[in-house]
Structure to design on (395 residues):
């Protein structure tokens, strides 16, 4: 009975994932004809992606940050300011790259195609595993129907294509979900290990520390605990931030600054403030000025509008649902959605809003909104996939 149930649920998740992956490529293929002009608004495409020998509707999922992750995987942090990208994802791409290399390729100029093949496979595998464990996490609180529809909402989310791109999104989601799931299961030692790995993937992994602390408090409250249980919880919470801390130590040893991953943001061209935090209302004011200065039908106005909406709507949903969300979930979601805005821009918020995944089952429960929401998600997603794979900035 258990095996049959396991196979049925797992099979549905695999089918959803494969359908999503195929549809991403289909949209990217038709984007070649709908958006014939290549945007090319990022460097190194001709040195990192074109040598793969694949059509652009496939290597387009390595655009923008992807080229930097691939260069780091091959060459380490040799290029200036690439330390803004945390190390775990490119390390895994490098270690797990089992494809034969091209000995005729000048790797002083080009990135071997094997790194793109490896990264693409790993991103897909990480996301498939993330879907499975996210479903298991959801089933702790919701029925099967709500849980599966939450997966569908995640898959059709307008920027979900980043889970299949050469980005850290899929790895971070997997590690975050595993840490949260294990925290709910009171296995805080393992939860801390996965949190540490998440914090070596993105700085937002540090938000798993307060989540774990809240879950430990709920678990320990009013109980008489054994020394071993206390020790496991303590070790778990202590090591949860070690990924970021170890990276900071590495930066101090190699660059001379613990916080170089922050100070390198501004020269890297992300339009971010590296000197001080910018409050959320100030960022809103900045965007209102941007809207007033741009032509309404320009791609720049469209990008600013998308960034603005993807910053405000998830935070508004957190306010609406704060009484219905588990407190630890609410704290994690607030941090992962708000912290990126402290650099003074909503740039990349369409991508960062993926970290509001714990809101999805609450949206699913608003059944009257579900079908219109899926329609809007798919429509916007098609547009964003087309722009991204054709070399236009999205997030």
């Amino acid at each position: 009975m258990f095996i049959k149930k396991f196979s049925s649920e797992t099979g549905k998740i695999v089918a959803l994932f494969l359908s999503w992956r195929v549809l991403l490529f289909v949209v990217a293929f038709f984007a070649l004809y709908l958006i014939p002009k290549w945007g090319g608004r990022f460097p190194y495409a001709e040195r990192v992606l074109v040598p793969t020998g694949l059509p652009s509707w496939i290597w387009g999922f390595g655009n923008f940050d992807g080229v930097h992750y691939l260069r780091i995987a091959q060459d380490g942090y040799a290029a200036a300011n690439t330390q803004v990208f945390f190390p775990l994802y490119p390390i895994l791409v490098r270690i797990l790259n089992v494809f034969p290399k091209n000995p005729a390729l000048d790797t002083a100029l080009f990135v071997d195609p094997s790194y793109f093949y490896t990264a693409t496979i790993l991103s897909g595998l990480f996301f498939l595993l993330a879907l499975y464990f996210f479903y298991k996490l959801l089933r702790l609180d919701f029925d099967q129907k709500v849980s599966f529809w939450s997966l569908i909402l995640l898959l059709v989310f307008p920027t979900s294509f980043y889970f299949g791109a050469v980005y850290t999104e899929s790895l971070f989601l997997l590690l975050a979900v595993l840490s949260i799931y294990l925290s709910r299961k009171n296995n805080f030692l393992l939860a801390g290990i996965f949190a540490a790995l998440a914090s070596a993937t993105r700085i937002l992994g540090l938000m798993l520390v307060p989540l774990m602390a809240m879950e430990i408090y709920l678990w320990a409250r009013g109980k008489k605990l054994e020394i071993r249980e206390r020790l496991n919880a303590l070790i778990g919470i202590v090591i949860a931030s070690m990924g970021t801390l170890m990276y900071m130590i590495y930066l101090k040893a190699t660059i001379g600054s613990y916080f170089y991953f922050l100070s390198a943001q501004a020269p890297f061209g992300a339009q971010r403030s590296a000197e001080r935090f910018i409050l959320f209302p100030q960022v809103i004011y900045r965007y209102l000025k941007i809207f007033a200065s741009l032509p309404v039908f320009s791609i720049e106005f469209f990008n600013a509008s998308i960034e603005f909406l993807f910053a405000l709507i998830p935070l508004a949903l957190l306010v609406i649902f704060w009484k219905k969300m588990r407190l630890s979930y609410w704290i994690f979601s607030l941090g992962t959605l708000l912290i990126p805005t402290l650099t003074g821009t909503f740039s990349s918020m369409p991508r960062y809003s993926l970290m509001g995944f714990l809101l999805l089952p609450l949206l699913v429960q608003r059944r009257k909104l579900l079908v219109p929401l899926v329609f809007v998600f798919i429509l916007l997603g098609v547009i964003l996939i087309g722009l991204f794979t054709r070399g236009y900035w999205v997030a």
